[in-house]
Design a protein that fits this description.
By secondary structure, this protein is an alpha+beta fold. Helix content is about 30%, strand content about 15%. Strand 10 and strand 11 form a beta hairpin.
Length: about 400
Amino acid sequence: MTHPTRRALRASAAGAERPHESGPTRRQLRERERAAEAIVETATEADAAEAVHVSPDSAPLYTSRRAMREAATQVAEELPVQMAEAAFEAPVITVDAPSLGAGEAAQIPPLVVRQPRSLAPRTLSSAPAAPPRGRSSRRARRLAQRITAAGSLLFIGSLVVVTSLPAQAVQAPGGIDPTVAQIESGEQTLEGVANGQPQFLARDDVVVHDQIAAARMSPGELAAYQAVADGEAAGPSYTGDPAFPQVWGMLQTSYVQTPLPHMDQVPVSSGFGYRPGGFHGGSDFTPGLGTEIRPIANGVVSAVWQGNNPGGGGYAVFIDHNIDGEFVQSWYAHMLPGSIQVEVGQVVDITTVIGQVGNSGRSTGPHLHLELKNSDYVSFDPVLWLQTREQNLEYRGY
């Protein structure tokens, strides 16, 4: 008799202390849970079915989308389908052509319209292929096509002529309408009128107003306004009021122009508003060194600066304008030294040359600084103001 091992003794002892207990497995537990959930779901559906009362005439109820689709498919398959027979009538073109008959509408025979080709599927045939056509048959077919096309063009052209010409244009000479024959009974001549003077058509309600011509002043007008300005004492030019109020009130105008009216487009190197270094109160134009400058409107010179402008404008000119009764002052700065041709108190019009474009004062290159002031002595955008006055000749080059 052999002695048992220690491992066998320990196993027998554990089995004696803890007897084997048999219980449900995890799989059995999951199946029980699913069965319980199915029972609860079935009970819920039964309760819902008892709460719903379906009338005999109501639509059927479906428990799933699949059942709904199957029912709809079955209904669609049972619907009767009736194919309509194709009906085609040849169109008839009616043309109102009195010249073709006794004033009644003439009917053109119906057009021959090719029937639409059936959509039946093609089938393969074991019959032998037709022999290729010869060169003579192809030439005959091309000739027939050309003749048919020419006949169609002639027929369409005859319809256009008949419908566009009047009835009397195609009638015989002896069949002219009496009302047409009475339009001019005598012979027409090209003799002149009795008095021998040419006559013209004229309208008194049409007036052509040339604003540019009206804004220009004659030498006599300039002399008369200059006499009034010479009788006034010059006032300050930095107050928003005209320095020569009497002559300023006489120079009211509505026409304005650019300071370079002889140029179609003027480059703008720097516009009005804020820029690096501070606020820019005007617009800088770069037409080129030495370009002549003219005032934006008729006015009177209120200040001339010969290189000592306190604002850094160098050689500059200020002009007061009366634009539709409103005070507007224009500045022309950085002008060429020695080019200024006006003086304080001088009356100028749109043709007067003020000076030339230069590079004086605080300037980095030849340009014209144009600045405009209102009665509150506040600067406003000159380019935008000129555009509102129909002077849109500048383009921005920056």
